[in-house]
């Protein structure tokens, strides 16, 4: 028997739009109920099952709380596995990536913490736009290619945002 759908673990319908706070609260509730410590005196089989359930729950939560991972998962549920790292095949976005990378290098070279904060807000806006675009098209078979293109863009922005946070921490020290 395959593992249950990540959404089903949280009593949710598969959807891109999620209430992150509600998801976190539900995760903590469920995690408490299957925490391996609660099964310390239980038979070995029950301990193993609790551990497996705890691991599944954690994996589901990590996937659902992250927009690009959630998007990939939704596409996979629809039978479309995308490789995790894919070069973006759209020239327009490639140009945008190069501009962002140059800007990030300039911010790093100038150690401009205020500039990093502004850059981060711009990335967040771009991420929100991608999220909205993906939410509108992920379950429409006619718009599959668009959804896949948006997921690749989401992955890039997620990675870039992570790099920006690391730069911010270095400059903050």
From TrEMBL:
Function: Co-chaperone involved in the maturation of iron-sulfur cluster-containing proteins. Seems to help targeting proteins to be folded toward HscA.
Family affiliation: Belongs to the HscB family.
Keyword DNA repair: no
GO cellular component: iron-sulfur cluster transfer complex
Protein name: Co-chaperone protein HscB homolog
Superkingdom field: Bacteria
GO biological process, one term: protein folding
One family name in Pfam for this protein: DnaJ
Lineage: Bacteria, Pseudomonadati, Pseudomonadota, Gammaproteobacteria, Pseudomonadales
Organism: Aquipseudomonas ullengensis
Domain J residue range list: 5-77
């Amino acid at each position: 028997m395959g593992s249950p759908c990540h959404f089903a673990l949280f009593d949710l319908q598969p959807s891109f739009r999620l209430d992150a706070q509600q998801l976190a609260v539900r995760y903590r509730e469920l995690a408490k109920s299957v925490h391996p410590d609660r099964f310390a005196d239980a038979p070995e089989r029950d301990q193993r099952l609790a551990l497996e359930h705890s691991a599944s729950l954690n994996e589901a939560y990590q996937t659902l709380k992250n927009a690009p991972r959630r998007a990939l998962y939704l596409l996979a549920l629809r039978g479309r596995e995308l490789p995790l790292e894919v070069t973006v095949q759209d020239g327009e976005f490639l140009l945008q990536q190069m501009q962002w990378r140059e800007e990030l290098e300039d911010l790093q070279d100038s150690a401009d913490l205020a500039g990093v904060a502004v850059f981060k807000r711009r990335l967040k806006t771009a991420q929100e736009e991608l999220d909205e675009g993906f939410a509108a098209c992920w379950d429409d078979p006619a718009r599959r290619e668009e959804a896949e293109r948006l997921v690749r863009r989401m992955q890039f922005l997620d990675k870039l945002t992570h790099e920006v946070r690391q730069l911010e921490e270095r400059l903050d020290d």
